[in-house]
């Protein structure tokens, strides 16, 4: 098959979503509701729940459900045009083994993990020109019933080529993802988008996890200067890597990190609060390693990273 014509137009594009959690579940449900051909690859327990209850989304003024097409490991018998990867970093290696049979010679792989290391992992397994960059901005969680709960209305998806992906492939992909109930943006600067989000996740995640509290609780305890300084450290690393955070966004991050009463936290902090494994090595440890390679001093980030290593080692 010609690599520049791999995607069947519109509804014919076959999409495999890896995981049906807060991110993959929401966007997969949106795409399926819009008539796209979507299948979810999930763990057996999740598959059983989805087959019994369907995939339900509620909150922030919207309630809808789909009866999803579901596969579990070992049931893949054909390849897909697009694979959306939305698992936690700690599960990436096993997820790759699970979905590898679905990757054909022209499949595009779109990961929506935070950070950068996952790109290197995927590119070692698959051709670099098929691994796209991706960023999602979403306010969702999975509730006690296994449904997707929308905490807020924010739902955005950004994606783009990193290495040599043919323009026609991107255009056809963009056509498929557009008009599905959320803003879908084909970005010419996806690496910059990814670095900017990583600065947000590393600084807010580092602050809330190290201090064991929300942004508002940190500020109330006199930690506003600390939180702002951590934002500045992370932004300095991004700039040294060649992806400076735009000044307006940088100022906005500082304002959000020092907002009195803010309930803001990150999924890493929520995982820590429940005693779960976290993505701290992927999000903080890798950020710290790159800071050292770039010779950027990040003493606060180092403390946050050590704090999370102690947590992970004691679990």
Protein model, in words:
The strands form two sheets. Strands 5-2-1-6-7 form a five-stranded parallel β-sheet, sandwiched between helices. Helix 8 runs antiparallel to helix 9. It has two domains: 186 residues, Rossmann fold; 122 residues, N-(1-d-carboxylethyl)-l-norvaline Dehydrogenase, domain 2 (Orthogonal Bundle). The N terminus is likely disordered. 45% of the residues lie in helices and 20% in strands. The chain is α/β, with parallel strands linked by helices and 315 residues long. It is built from twelve helices and ten strands. Helix 1 links the parallel strand 1 and strand 2.
The CATH topology of the largest domain, please? Rossmann fold
Helix count equals: 12
**CATH homologous superfamily of the largest domain?**
NAD(P)-binding Rossmann-like Domain
Overall number of structural domains: 2
Indicate the radius of gyration in whole angstroms. 19 Å
Sheet with most strands: strand arrangement: 5-2-1-6-7
Tell me the CATH architecture of the largest domain.
Answer: 3-Layer(aba) Sandwich
Average residue pLDDT: 94
CATH class of the largest domain: Alpha Beta
H/E element string?
A: EHEHEEEEHEHEEHEHHHHHHH
Cα distance spanning the termini: 49 Å
Low-confidence stretches: 1-11
User: Main β-sheet, in a few words?
Assistant: 5 strands, parallel
The helix fraction, in percent, is 40-55%
What would you call the structural class? Answer: alpha/beta
| SS elements, strand count | 10
In short:
The protein has 315 residues and is an alpha/beta fold. Helix content is 45%, strand content 20%.
């Amino acid at each position: 098959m010609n690599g520049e014509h791999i995607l069947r137009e519109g509804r014919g594009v076959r999409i495999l979503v890896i995981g049906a959690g807060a991110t993959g579940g929401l966007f997969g449900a949106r795409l399926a509701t819009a008539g796209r051909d979507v299948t979810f690859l999930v763990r057996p327990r999740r598959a059983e729940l989805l087959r019994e209850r369907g995939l339900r989304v509620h909150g922030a003024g919207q309630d809808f459900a789909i009866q999803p097409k579901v596969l579990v490991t070992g049931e893949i018998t054909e390849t897909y045009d697009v694979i959306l990867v939305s698992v936690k970093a700690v599960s990436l290696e096993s997820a790759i083994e699970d979905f590898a049979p679905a990757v054909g010679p022209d499949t595009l792989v779109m990961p929506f993990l935070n950070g950068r290391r996952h790109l290197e992992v995927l590119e070692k397994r698959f051709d670099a020109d098929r691994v796209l960059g991706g960023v999602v901005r979403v306010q969702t969680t999975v509730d006690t019933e296994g449904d997707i709960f929308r905490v807020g209305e924010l739902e955005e998806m950004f994606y783009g080529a990193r290495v040599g992906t043919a323009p026609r492939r991107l255009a056809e992909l963009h056509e498929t993802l557009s008009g599905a109930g959320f803003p879908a943006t084909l970005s010419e600067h996806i690496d910059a988008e990814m670095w900017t989000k990583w600065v947000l996740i590393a600084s807010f995640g580092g602050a809330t996890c190290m201090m064991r509290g929300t942004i508002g609780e940190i500020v109330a305890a006199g930690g506003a200067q600390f939180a702002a300084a951590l934002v500045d450290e992370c932004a300095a690393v991004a700039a040294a890597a060649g992806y400076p955070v735009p000044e307006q966004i940088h100022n906005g991050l500082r304002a959000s990190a020092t907002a009195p009463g803010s309930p803001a936290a990150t999924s890493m902090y929520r995982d820590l609060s429940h005693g779960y494994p976290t993505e701290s090595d992927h999000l903080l440890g890798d950020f710290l390693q790159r800071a050292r390679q770039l010779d950027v001093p990040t003493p606060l980030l180092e403390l946050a990273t050590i704090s999370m290593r102690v947590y992970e080692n004691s679990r």
